[in-house]
Amino acid sequence: MDDTSTARPAAGAVVVAVDGPSGSGKSSVCRRVAAALGLAYLDTGAMYRAATWWCLERGVDLADRDAVTAAVRAMPLEVGLDPRAPTFTVDGTDVAAAIRTTAISSVVSQVATNLEARADLGERQRAVIAAEQGPDGWSGGRGVVVEGRDITTVIAPAADVRILLTASEQARLARRALEVHGSADGASLAATRDQVVRRDAQDSTVVDFLTAADGVVTVDSSDLDLAQTVEAVLAVVRDVTGR
Ligand SMILES: Nc1ncnc2c1ncn2[C@@H]1O[C@H](COP(=O)(O)OP(=O)(O)O)[C@@H](O)[C@H]1O
Ligand SMILES: Nc1ccn([C@H]2C[C@H](O)[C@@H](COP(=O)(O)OP(=O)(O)O)O2)c(=O)n1
User: Fold this and answer.
1) Mean of the pLDDT values across residues 198-224?
2) Residue 21 counted as an annotated binding residue
3) Mutate to test the pocket of ligand 2, among 44, 48, 146, 164 (most ligand atoms within 8 A of CB)
4) Which domains does the chain have, with CATH numbers?
5) For 99-124, how does the pLDDT look when each residue is reduced to its tens digit (9 = 90+)?
6) How many CB atoms lie under 10 A from the CB of residue 11?
């Protein structure tokens, strides 16, 4: 028995799907939830970011939808699923830092609104989930927490746990401003608005991550700190799975 076994689900491989808008806390909360439960962790937004990085690296015009589709299909992406140290490598290059830059954030929606690119990345996401879940009735799978915009609705609608993580626009802007600019003063909030509000509006044209679909539990983190939000999500997992 290894030292994390007591934190793992008793049997079976749980799939936890989490969607929500930018700055609602998906990445920071899901990493902690996955680590607490001994599950793998997949940040699908990082896959869209990596695809965007790859297109730019290859000199692809993001407005050329066919060229973007072809580049995304050919992208040699490797994803590491350890929630304590997730990794994203494209063609041998560690892109973890490069995909978080404002240069990527400001154009990633052009890839995320390309339906063929979505289909390709969606297949890769389903393959990761299937591998982490294991076959029906098999209890050896590790299980996985997957977060993004369409996980509860399109990618894993049959997930054991489906959560919409929300927060008020004001809270999300303040969090992102603090993260990117180190302060939530007026200028920082204004500079962050494009990253959060405009991008969510653009992304919402292809997927709905602002309202909870049937069977999806909403967790509103507006008035919760990070630790409280992690606890609220763990409570939903416990309620739904008994784990
Ligand atoms: N409940 C919370 N309370 C306060 N800050 C939070 C909370 N959840 C996340 N944050 C912070 O807000 C920022 C954005 O969170 P992040 O996890 O990147 O959101 P998302 O993945 O939904 O875009 C991070 O700096 C994170 O530490
Ligand atoms: N399943 C997903 C995940 C992300 N996206 C899009 C939406 C965002 O503009 C980009 C990047 O997502 P990411 O979760 O990293 O964005 P934030 O950092 O939370 O603002 O990808 C998507 O369309 N579908």
Assistant:
1) 95
2) yes
3) 48
4) 11-237 (3.40.50.300)
5) 999 999 999 999 999 999 999 999 99
6) 10
